């Protein structure tokens, strides 16, 4: 491996702890300081990876934590760079672990799919469109793997990545559990027998079978919306269960079937048929459930299915709803939204943990920078994860207010309704975060398509060229879950109960935390309702509560002599 003299001198300046402004002026005068920083970090990352692949973790360790203000460390690290440059070019072996050659964004989805070594990748690639069966590896990740294998004669090539939509697979037998698009119900169970159907002349949708009727209902929401995906999942589970477990079409179900389904979703049996790990819809091992549903999730499923069946009655497809004669389950305390909000102490712990990792030598600075801003963005706005992922600079609007300029973020929320939230208080952090990503111009001068939460991704044209991409909702979900898990593990020795809550937290916890903290700090409920986009004050009022400690403390004042009236 060789470095050009400018890059070698740049690394020496970095080792000495020179400011990025100085390094940029001296070694890359045509670049912004943020670009010089990104370039330097990429050089160090490449050197560290080379050392580890050659089995020289000792050399990698001398660079991974820098720079430090220590002449001894600078001397050792400078010598380590020279030693790494002299190492023979490491060559991959089939038995090498994936993490030795690929970053976490590629290693993690492969590990979840049971792929641990380079040989496992080659074996998986023997199947047609192999990468589509690995959730969240993506086209870019698969192409990175293919190019790596193409450069490594020891491993052999991987097949080309086909990005065109694949041909529809053969329909599985009707006894198999499969996504609805790959499932064909037997004719007797299709719903054409009109067991619980209204007369044809009263039907107001173009649907001849139950599956077609469910499709008409789902068509009310945009195809790529989170709402449609959530509703499709519940309708799909219900329709498959009616066919495979009850032996009836959806339009033949009665109240007794609805009661049985209530129990089924909490404990899907037989588990080998219905339960399995998360997998792509096209994967052979796809299952409708990852486990039995919690009380809250079961109540949500029933709400969705009540809505579906009532709609089918209203449009003249069903004669009556199987849920119509079923008493609604009592809403449990577990299902209350406020129960999923972080306390003030838990929220401060998460943010302090993130700040501590940013100051820790050797930490993944980019990861924690992205995580910190994403957390602050979600907490400050209360937006859903889909809105956080979709937000761009073009969605920002500057308006003059009574006491100066106000900044708003525009988006579309449930029901495709226009919505806006104030972001003036977040503006300083946004500018700092954009600067970290290399955007130092005023907001008005930047490309409006730049995502508010974005990351660099290497292009296929070269190892030192990058493009900016937005986090997907799934990517943000993984980012938040990972950080909450880390923060929870760090809190475990101090507060095991709070640690367990953090480890169980998801991205949507930020929205509940935003609402609960806003009302606790005296924000008027009508303002909170507007910011959250709730259609009813009754929904927002669920957050008007107190935690158990405060409840205990306030009621305890009844027996406090000092609190009694004179």
What tags apply to this protein structure?
three-stranded antiparallel sheet, 6% strand, 23 helices, 566 residues
Give the arrangement of secondary structure elements.
Elements: H1 5-15, H2 20-27, H3 33-53, H4 57-64, H5 71-86, H6 104-112, H7 118-124, H8 138-150, H9 210-218, H10 226-244, H11 255-266, H12 271-274, H13 295-314, H14 344-359, H15 365-381, H16 385-390, E1 396-401, E2 404-413, E3 417-422, H17 427-436, E4 454-458, E5 466-470, H18 473-491, H19 496-503, H20 509-520, H21 525-532, H22 537-540, H23 548-556
Antiparallel strand pairs: 1-2, 2-3, 4-5
What does this structure look like?
This protein is mostly helical. The chain has helices at residues 5-15, 20-27, 33-53, 57-64, 71-86, 104-112, 118-124, 138-150, 210-218, 226-244, 255-266, 271-274, 295-314, 344-359, 365-381, 385-390, 427-436, 473-491, 496-503, 509-520, 525-532, 537-540, 548-556, and strands at 396-401, 404-413, 417-422, 454-458, 466-470. The strands form 2 sheets. A 3-stranded antiparallel beta sheet has the order 1-2-3, with no helix packed on it. Strands 4-5 form a two-stranded antiparallel sheet. Helix 2 packs across helix 3 (33-53). The longest helix is centred in the first third of the chain and has 21 residues, at 33-53. The model is unreliable at 333-338 and 459-465 (pLDDT under 50).
């Amino acid at each position: 491996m060789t470095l050009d003299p400018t890059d070698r001198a740049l690394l020496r300046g970095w080792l000495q702890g020179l400011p990025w402004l100085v390094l940029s002026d001296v070694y890359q005068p045509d670049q912004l300081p943020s670009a010089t920083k990104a370039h330097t970090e990429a050089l160090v990352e490449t050197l560290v990876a080379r050392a580890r692949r050659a089995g020289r973790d000792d050399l990698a360790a001398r660079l991974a934590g820098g720079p430090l203000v220590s002449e001894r460390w600078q001397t050792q690290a400078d010598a380590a760079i020279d030693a790494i440059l002299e190492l023979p070019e490491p060559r991959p072996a089939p038995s090498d672990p994936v993490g030795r050659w690929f970053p976490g964004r590629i290693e993690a989805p492969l590990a979840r799919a049971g792929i641990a070594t380079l040989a496992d990748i080659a074996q998986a690639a023997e199947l047609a469109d192999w990468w589509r069966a690995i959730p969240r590896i993506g086209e870019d990740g698969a192409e990175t793997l293919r190019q790596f294998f193409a450069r490594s004669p020891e491993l052999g090539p991987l097949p080309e990545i086909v990005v065109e939509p694949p041909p529809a697979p053969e329909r599985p037998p009707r006894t198999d559990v499969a996504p609805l698009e790959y499932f064909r119900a037997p004719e007797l169970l299709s719903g054409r027998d009109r067991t619980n159907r209204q007369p044809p002349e009263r039907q107001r949708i173009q649907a001849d079978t139950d599956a077609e009727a469910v499709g008409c209902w789902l068509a009310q929401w945009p195809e790529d919306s989170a709402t449609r995906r959530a509703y499709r999942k519940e309708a799909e589970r219900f329709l498959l269960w009616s066919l495979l477990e009850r032996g009836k079409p959806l339009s033949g179900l009665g109240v007794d079937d609805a009661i049985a389904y209530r129990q089924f979703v909490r404990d899907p049996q037989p588990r080998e048929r219905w339960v399995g790990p998360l997998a792509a819809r096209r994967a052979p091992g796809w299952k409708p459930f990852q486990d039995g549903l919690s009380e809250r999730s079961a109540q949500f499923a029933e709400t969705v299915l009540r809505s579906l069946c009532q709609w089918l009655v209203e449009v003249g497809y069903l004669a009556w709803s199987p849920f119509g004669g079923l008493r609604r389950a009592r809403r449990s305390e577990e299902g209350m939204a406020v129960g999923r909000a972080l306390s003030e102490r838990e929220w401060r712990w998460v943010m302090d943990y993130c700040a501590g990792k940013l100051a820790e030598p050797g930490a993944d600075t980019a990861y924690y920078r992205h995580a910190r801003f994403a957390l602050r963005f979600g907490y400050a706005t209360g937006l859903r994860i889909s809105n956080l992922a979709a937000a761009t600079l073009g969605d920002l609007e500057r308006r003059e207010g009574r006491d100066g300029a106000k900044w708003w973020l525009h988006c579309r929320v449930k029901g495709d309704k226009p919505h806006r939230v104030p972001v003036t208080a977040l503006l300083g952090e946004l500018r700092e975060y954009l600067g970290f990503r290399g955007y130092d111009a005023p907001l008005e001068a930047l490309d409006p398509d730049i995502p508010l939460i974005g990351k660099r991704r290497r292009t296929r044209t070269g190892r030192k060229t990058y493009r900016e991409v937005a986090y997907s909702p799934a990517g943000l979900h993984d980012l938040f879950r990972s950080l909450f898990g880390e923060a929870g593990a760090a809190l475990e020795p101090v507060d095991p109960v709070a640690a367990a809550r953090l480890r169980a937290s998801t991205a949507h916890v930020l929205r509940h935390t935003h609402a609960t903290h806003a009302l606790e700090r005296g924000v008027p409920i009508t303002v909170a309702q507007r910011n959250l986009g709730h259609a009813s004050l009754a929904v927002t009022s669920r957050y008007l509560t107190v935690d158990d400690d405060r409840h205990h403390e306030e009621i305890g004042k009844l027996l406090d002599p000092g609190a009694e009236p004179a």
